[in-house]
Amino acid sequence: MKKIKAALLGYGTVGQGIHEVLHEHQERLRILLGKEVEIVAILVQNPSKHKNLPENIVVTTNFEEIITLPELDVVFEAIVGEEPALSYLTHALDKGVHVITANKMMFAKHAKSLLEKARENDVKIGFEATTAGGTPVIRTIEQLLQVNRVEKIEAILNGTSNYILTAMSERSIDFKTALAEAKEKGYAEADPTNDIDGTDAFNKLMILSQLIFNDQPAWHKVEKTGIKDLTSTDIQAAQENNKKYKHIAVIYKEGDQLKAEVSPLLLSSSHPLYNIDGVDNAIAITSNIVGTITLIGPGAGKLPTASAMVEDLVAIFQHEPENHSIHQYKDQAAV
Ligand SMILES: NC(=O)c1ccc[n+]([C@@H]2O[C@H](COP(=O)([O-])OP(=O)(O)OC[C@H]3O[C@@H](n4cnc5c(N)ncnc54)[C@H](OP(=O)(O)O)[C@@H]3O)[C@@H](O)[C@H]2O)c1
């Protein structure tokens, strides 16, 4: 049986999640795609941390070793930061290799050029995992855009901020205590700056903007405010008025202008994002025909993020002409 040959760039939380999901769901993938998916190589920074991997997988710090492998079909990218991820993905697309990325920081800035490069080379980029982790917002929006015009997005796109605001509101604790608790539970990184100052939500909003409007607002014109200046007194005053502070990313078009903002907003109980608590993400999508749809789900984590990336893999390879296997899957499911 022909195989889909995949490389993992990065073998941390997300990379290991992809490996686990591909391994545990190999049979389902074989039925869906008519092919096995094989991880042939893994790129890391420090190979000595990854000694227990099977011998038939190349483990390397050298991307050249990966991109020159014969018959490589797809790279999953789960490393951190803008470079070298951008250079690696550009190289992969130029070689006609499909790309699936979780790297929101890099993709927010370079989505336009990478998507253009993918079109030029007749390959695909999956980026579901960049925005709201395991919650399928990208695919839902792509589906809606076939007939609807998406007019507005309002979203909670950072689980760390949402956890902190929920903890402050439900248990009357202050920001510092709630942040320390989020770190202890693994919901906040050692350096949580990008989460609490709104940068992470901003990056995801720009990815949504690129998808929906095929454009982004000038970054310096987008007001971006984090949650760290909200006090317990603010939160309690909101509660007394039956309202809640939520950290909201919003984008819509006014005339020809894209308007976007990321900031803590006071929501009343009728708002679709009022009840989104804890580490969940949520996105309210308002479109001209269907009205408002709200998706809620895990915004990060090993398996939710890997799930989004493996769903991308299926979406890419199911549409390859020789794949007849969705029918096979349906036939099997009916047995
Ligand atoms: N964690 C989540 O829940 C989540 C959710 C959505 C999106 N993401 C995104 O997914 C990406 C990966 O996140 P993560 O949590 O898996 O990170 P992580 O646990 O820190 O793992 C990063 C991996 O990338 C490797 N790496 C880093 N820089 C590299 C370089 N220059 N060359 C080669 N390898 C390099 C590291 O190698 P070593 O193992 O040798 O150190 C490690 O294996 C990030 O862009 C993140 O924003 C993460």
Number of helices: 13
CATH superfamily of the largest domain: NAD(P)-binding Rossmann-like Domain
Distance N to C terminus: 23 Å
Listing every helix as H and every strand as E from the N terminus to the C terminus, the arrangement reads: EHHEEHEHEHEHEHHHHEHEEEEHH
Biggest sheet, spatial arrangement of strands: 3-2-1-4-5-6
Radius of gyration: 21 Å
Strand fraction equals 15-25%
Task: Catalogue the unreliable spans.
Answer: 323-335
Active site: 204
Organism: Thalassobacillus cyri
Pfam families: Homoserine_dh (PF00742), NAD_binding_3 (PF03447)
Binding site for L-homoserine: 189
What does the model show?
This protein is α/β, with parallel strands linked by helices and 335 residues long. Helix content is 41%, strand content 23%. It has two domains: 3-134 and 302-334, NAD(P)-binding Rossmann-like Domain (Rossmann fold), CATH 3.40.50.720; 138-298, Dihydrodipicolinate Reductase, domain 2 (2-Layer Sandwich). Strand 11 (280-287) and strand 12 (291-298) form a beta hairpin. Residues 323-335 have low confidence and may be disordered. The protein binds NADP nicotinamide-adenine-dinucleotide phosphate. NADP nicotinamide-adenine-dinucleotide phosphate binds next to helix 1. NADP nicotinamide-adenine-dinucleotide phosphate binds at residues 10-15, 43-46, 49, 78-80, 84, 102-104, 129, 133, 300-301, 305. It catalyses: L-homoserine + NADP(+) = L-aspartate 4-semialdehyde + NADPH + H(+). Keywords: Amino-acid biosynthesis, Methionine biosynthesis, NADP, Oxidoreductase, Sodium, Threonine biosynthesis. Residues 136-314 form the Homoserine dehydrogenase catalytic domain. NADPH binds at residue 104.
